[in-house]
Structures are given as C-alpha cells and as structure tokens.
Amino acid sequence: DGINNDADNCPDDANPNQEDFDNDNMGDACDDDNDNDLVNNSDDAFPFDVNEQSDFDGDGIGDNADADDDNDGLNDTEDAFDNDANETTDTDEDGIGNNADADDDGDGIVDESDNCPLIANADQADADNDGIGTACDADEVEDETPAVPALGLAATGMVVLLASIIARRD
Q1: Which has the closest alpha carbon to 26: 40, 11, 41, 16?
Q2: CA separation for the pair 156, 64 (Å, rounded)
Q3: Residue 161, SS3 per DSSP
Q4: What is the sign of the dihedral through the CA atoms of 96, 99, 101 and 104?
Q5: Contact indicator for 22, 10 with CB cutoff of 8 Å
Q6: Which run of H or E residues covers position 155?
Q7: Phi, psi of 164 (to 5 degrees)
Q8: How far apart are CA 84 and CA 29, in angstroms?
Q9: C-alpha 51: how far from its chain's center?
C-alpha cells in the first residue's frame, strides 16, 4: 500500500489511506471491530456506529434508535415480543405469545374451551349462563338477567314515548 510497515497501521493488509475510524491504532482494513463497540464487524449491522449493532427488521434503522424493531406496527415499549413480528401480547406472562399459546390466561383451560380466554377463571363460572365467564362478562348483573335485553326494552319505551309526543303535535 506504499506505507512502510513500521508506520503502517495495517502492515499485513493494504490500507493506503491509513483509515482508523475508532482511533485504536489498528487500521480499518485489518480491524475486526471498526467502531470498538465489542461486536465484530462481521456481526455488526453498523460497523462504523458505536451505538448500533443490529437491525432486526432490516429497515436501515438500528434497533437502539428504532421504535419498532420487528416492524409489526406496535412500538417496542408496548410489544411483549419486540423481535417477533408474529407476536405482540403475552396475557399470562409465561413467555409464550398469545398467538402460539393454547392457554392465554394461564388458568389451565385451553382457549378454545375457555369461557373467558383472556382472564383467568379456572372454575369457568357463568352466573347468567350466557356462555361468557362471570370473570369477564360485562353484562353480568345481580339479578342474573343480561343487561342487553333490558336496554332493548328501554329503547323500545323511548320510541313509543317519542311517537306519542309527535302524534300530539299534529
């Protein structure tokens, strides 16, 4: 490379401009870790950036700066699996994402047989017998009557009341 070996920062490799990005006196042409971040260049997606080493989703933004490392549309701060685009949630926090977990809530009842698959209710109680477990039934009321039919009756009463008011105007 035209540089005398005693002054060459890479005596066994051509490095004519004597580039040394990390200023460690080992030329970039022979330095296994150009940015001195303790990750070899061959394993470093950003060999000249000490703050970045990987780019899981291959979008050109290093994972340290990337808000969504797996590019699944959910920020890493909200994603239980920030390096798995197929998983985002782990309801029972067992390390298995809900997409792959047969029992999302960890109550011992597999989801397809669970009347409340995202809230643990091993007893499968269903006070109003509507097929939705008491633990997650928003329509559960003390008299065991579903709230939705009661709402329908109230709405019908309002329609009749409005119709009678309109009829009186005529």
Answers
A1: 11
A2: 57
A3: helix
A4: positive
A5: no
A6: helix 147-169
A7: -70, -35
A8: 35
A9: 23
152 has pLDDT over 80: no
Which of 85, 77, 41 shows the shortest CA–CA distance to 59? 85
Tokens of 3: 């540089």
- The answer to whether residue 7 scores a pLDDT higher than 90 is no
Interatomic CA distance for residues 125 and 147, integer angstroms: 18
The identity of residue 128, as a single letter, is D
Distance of alpha carbon 79 from alpha carbon 70, whole angstroms? 10
Q: CA 107 to CA 123: how far, in whole Å?
A: 9
Give mean pLDDT, residues 156-170.
67
Which pTM value belongs to this model? 0.55
How big is the chain by its Cα radius of gyration, in Å?
32
Structure-token match 């009321």, residue found: 141
Q: Is the separation of the CB atoms in 65 and 72 below 8 Å?
A: no
State the chain's maximal CA–CA distance in angstroms. Answer: 109
What's the chain's average pLDDT?
87
pLDDT for position 139:
81
Q: CA-to-CA distance for 142 and 126, rounded, in angstroms?
A: 12
